[in-house]
Amino acid sequence: MATRRLNVTIPVLTYHSTNIVDNTYAGNDHVALASDLEALHAWGVRVVSLDDVAAWYHGDDAIIAGGPCVALTFDDGSDFDAVDIEHPTCGPQRSFLGVMKDHHDRTGRSVTATTFVIASPGARRQLDERSLVGRDWWGEHWWPEVRSGGFMSIGCHSWDHVHTVVDEVAQAENVRGDFSRVATLADCEQQVREAGDYIAARLGGSRPAHYAFPYGQFSAYMVEEYLPGRQSSHGFSAAWTTAPRPVTRAESRWTLPRFVCGRDWGAPDQFRALLGRVFP
Ligand SMILES: [Zn+2]
User: Fold this and answer.
1) pLDDT of 166-179, one tens digit each?
2) What's the 272 CA to ligand 1 centre distance in angstroms?
3) What would be the CATH architecture of the domain defined by 12-278?
4) How do beta strands 46-48 and 69-76 pair?
């Protein structure tokens, strides 16, 4: 009974640490993450790294020999990922890193996640001022710290997210809010390779291996030409969308799918139902 039924898919779950509307499961991804980790523990589902998922995807069955597993990813990389912060309306918030450490301390289970950060300091500054409260909560000081701590690895979530609140984005016509419009060599170089360069420079030269598309969107040029054709230059080994299905070996490595908390489940019973579908 070591290998259970589910040996053919691994769901990857995505959380956003800036999703803090109140302190309920549905209104706060920190509350949801803590609850989901407890549920996974109770169900005997292990948390593995994105590198583990990639190794399995490329043929290493050792990852799934111990039974069903999931991987965790965090998008956008605000300080709420790694720093405990007093939220202006919702009070003290345990960071995602703290939630994972608490879970580890309580259960002894290993838990790990990849946090997909936005590279451009200018874009993060505008995001902090315009979509948070302008208290410098979108920094990069914690990137090397969390990476060396063993609970988190750093992935890349583009140069500027082509975010709607950012004035100038690396898109040929400055089109914002639609990452599928990043479709030229120059734009891809900035949004992928140079974003990776910037992150690597802050991590002692270690390049991020995983890339998550902003808004889950991508252009055909990026996934069919740029990512596979220039891998030796950008250094990424896989890219992640937000298509709501588990990873199988039939997927393309440049469009691997992920479920998103809040969109694909918003309550403990919905989380149970989702995993019930994935792990029949
Ligand atoms: Zn994002």
Assistant:
1) 999 999 999 999 99
2) 25
3) Alpha-Beta Barrel (3.20)
4) parallel
